[in-house]
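Predict structure. Chain length: 115.
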Amino acid sequence: MNWNLVLHVDSDTPQTLALAFSNAANYKAALPDESFRMALVANGPAVKLFTRSDRDLAEQGEKLAEQGLEIMLCNNALNKFGIDREQLWACASVVPAGVVELVRLQREGFAYIKP
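Prediction complete.
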C-alpha cells in the first residue's frame, strides 16, 4: 500500500500552517513501521509564512523536515509577493509552480490533504 501524503497550504494564517504541521506529525506517529514520503506544498499567500520572521513556525518546520517532511514553495507565489529566496527557511525548496507540483505528486500516488 502507498502511504505517501501531500499537504497543501494556500492560506497565510499561521494557524493553518500549524494545523498542517500537526497533521504531518500525527501521520508520521500513526505509521511507525511504514515507509512513506510526506510533502507540504505551499502556494498563494501561504508562502509568506516561510520566511525567517516567525521563529516558532520555522522551528516546527525545520524539526518536521529533519523527520522527512519535504517543504516545497511555489516560485510564482514568491515572485508575486516579492519574497527573496534568501529570506526562506533553509529546509524549504522552491518549485516552479505549486499547482503543478500538487498534480505531479497526486499522479505519483500521493494522498492529498488540505488542512
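Summary: Residues 76 and 97 are 6 Å apart (CA to CA).
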